Amino acid sequence: MLKHLHVISFTIPYPTNEGALVDLFNRLIAWKQLGIQVHLHCYRYDREEQPILKNYCTEVYYYERNNGHKGLSNTLPFIVGSRRNDVLMTRLLEDEYPIWMEGIHCTYLLTDARFSQRKCFVRKQQLNFQYYEDLYKKSSAPFKKLFYWMENRLLKRYEKKIRDSAIFLLATQKDLQCYLQDIGPSKADFLPLFIPYKLVSSLEGMGSFCLYHGDLGNPSNEEAACWLLEKVFNRVKVPFILAGKNPSRKLVELAEKKNNTCLVANPSDTELQDMIAKAHILLVPSFTRSGLKLSLINSLYNGRHCIANDYAVAGTGLEAACHIGTNANAFCEIVAQLYHQPFTTEEIDLRKRLLKGMFENEENARKTVDWIWG
Length: 374
Known about the structure:
α1 crosses α14 (361-373), α4 packs antiparallel against α5 (142-162) and α7 (219-232) crosses α12. The protein has a 7-stranded parallel β-sheet with strand order 3-2-1-4-5-6-7, with helices on both faces. A 6-stranded parallel β-sheet has the order 10-9-8-11-12-13, sandwiched between helices. By secondary structure, the chain is an alpha/beta fold. The protein has 14 helices and 13 strands. The model has no long low-confidence stretch (mean pLDDT 92). The protein has helices at residues 19-33, 78-81, 86-92, 128-138, 142-162, 173-183, 219-232, 249-256, 269-278, 294-302, 310-313, 328-338, 345-355, 361-373; strands at 3-9, 36-44, 59-64, 99-102, 120-124, 167-170, 188-190, 210-213, 240-244, 261-265, 281-284, 305-308, 323-324. The two termini are 13 Å apart.
């Protein structure tokens, strides 16, 4: 008997240049291999329609997001209210298939009594209210600060409202622990990220520069990049590369002032993976509670030495594979120490042991089948 599943994505999940989209796209591949008939629903606001998705989904539907004032509400977080769509709701009611929602962004239907008897699942990459709380504390722009404060406040209320309406599947053990304490063990479970890497391919020996990579247009990633430029690589004079999509003018200008720094904007996947392989040190600082970072996983599978801070590794179980720096002084000292230290086969073997069995796409896809139809 065929298994059908509605999947609602907060955006079009290709190209895979964000961690959450890498997770979803690789899960679509794994579900296809298991014969799952996926009916994909995604919001189109900053990306074009992608024919490649039809290779893995039975149907693909696109919906407009209500940006601007149309998405604002006194009761709904903007990331939820801006994705209200009557056409989507009507389409979901045409059958009784289970519904899988990618992120709290896509959960408006949980407020509708017509879906009270449907089997619903929510994939969470992070605790969103914490993320917006961190952005609020760090932002100095008045309008952004007000928006982050409102979003944090509304998300706290909203997540309590919907917590009994679905099973929450979280990407990190720390997030899972927090949710289990709040909503009970029957309503949450742990589902690792689905990633494109199967084997650790890190090269031993010496690389030739330090690298920070990520979505540079993301406020939290921009903050980390600026912190590295201003607090670390103004003191440690070794080659430093920033690589990622959509860097702001502020970040470009800051990088141009540093003699030992190069910024690579919007590299292709091939170019980025080549930089990761050639780097000697990968840097993964994080200053917001934004869940498990794919840049950390990518660095451990494909790069040499990796330096992270507590936020970047919290709840991942991957601390032993990283050098942990708690502040700028620690990062400076670790960079200076590692830059002339070869990466060894022993360190590669340690990563293989830590990562083995953690990110097995096929096995984890079978878990989802058991949860949904078991």
